[in-house]
């Protein structure tokens, strides 16, 4: 499957930055007690700075990131 290109996805302009941050946070998934999984938000300020997200947009990007995380978890757990 490595030779199959992923489909193009159209994004609304107001979520492009959140998707970029979500993709960058891809190695920050953590499993806790009982196997519950979620993103480790500890490196998030660093990621936001490296992605050059204006500080005023951090709250909106964070909320969008949480929506993306929730959607990913529903896929992972088959909900």
TrEMBL record:
It holds the Pfam family DUF1799. InterPro entries: Phage_TLS_TfmB. It comes from the Bacteria. This is DUF1799 domain-containing protein.
């Amino acid at each position: 499957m490595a030779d199959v290109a992923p489909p193009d996805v159209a994004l609304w302009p107001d979520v492009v930055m959140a998707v970029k941050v979500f993709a960058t946070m891809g190695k920050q998934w953590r499993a806790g007690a009982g196997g519950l999984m979620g993103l480790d938000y500890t490196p998030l300020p660093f990621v936001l700075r490296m992605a050059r997200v204006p500080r005023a947009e951090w709250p909106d990007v964070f909320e969008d990131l949480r929506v993306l995380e929730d959607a990913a978890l529903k896929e992972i757990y088959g909900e």
